[in-house]
Amino acid sequence: LLKNTKRTAFRKLSNLSLCFLLISQIISLLLTRSLGGILGLGVALIFLFPFSKNRLRIKKVGFFSLVAVSALFLMFIFTSQFLTEKINYSPFANHSSFDSRLVIYQVGAKITAGHWLLGIGPGNFQEVYLEHQKFFPPYPQWAVPHPHNLLLAFWLTGGFLGFSGFCLLFWKLRKSIFKRQKSWGLIAVSLMAYFLIHGLIDTPFWKNDLAIIFWLAVALNSMDLQNKKKLLKK
Predict the structure, then answer these.
(1) CA distance 146 to 123
(2) 102 vs 94: CA distance, rounded Å
(3) Nearest residue to 207 via CA among 142, 145, 151, 141
(4) Mean pLDDT by 10-residue block, N- to C-terminus, for the chain (234 residues)?
């Protein structure tokens, strides 16, 4: 009886500590005012928590929504320069964060169009970005080590083959999203959703700590799929 009491007390303390840590992290995220981080967290929670009995339907809608939003955002990047010219809007009037990102996307789209097959290789975006300044008015932001978009970054770094591999990776993992998983599998799926949403306006991958979390999520999803195959064979 004493052991059970201690275990119950320990579980309550662990749950309270976990809740405190989560609340602290959420507050820290809100204080950063990171739009990508906040949106990514919101979408990740959709995959993590069962909001209704039709969980499978929610996950399917959520996954294809991620794909559709990513495709539309990529289309926006490649048409942003055309759109701004048509509506006579100059992104260089005010040096806000949105204006800087819009210019970076326009330059990134132009670089991708010229190097769509092989890309420019890893770590070369800053140099090529400055070389393309002659095609644009003065940049609002000159120090830009990456294109602030995960899809565009994969395309520029690995060419069309690298971009296709990244898309194929997410498409293969859809099976683990549509099937019932263990708790760690749900966390892995949520992490992948977070990376994709946050990656629309930033590159939460080309940092050692974030890259480890990304590939850990991939590994957990792959392990979950392999376990399901073994169970089916038995």
Answers:
(1) 8
(2) 12
(3) 145
(4) 66 74 72 75 72 60 80 86 59 66 90 93 92 88 90 92 87 64 64 84 74 78 61 52
| b/e per residue 154-169 (b: at least 16 CB within 10 A) | bbbbbbeebbeebbee
What is the C-alpha to C-alpha distance for residues 153 and 137, in angstroms, rounded to an integer?
23
Length of the chain: 234
- Which positions ≥6 away from 190 have C-beta within 8 Å? 44, 45, 47, 48
Cβ proximity of 152 and 77 under 8 Å: yes
- Tokens standing for 221? 């999803």
Burial of 53 (0-12, 13-18, 19+ CB in 10 A): exposed
Contact 144, 156 (CB under 8 A): no
**What type of residue is 40?**
G
Cβ(162)–Cβ(154) below 8 Å: yes
What type of residue sits at position 162? G
Angle of CA points 20, 21, 26, to nearest 5°: 100
Q: Which long-range contacts (CB under 8 A, 24 or more apart) does 8-17 make?
A: none
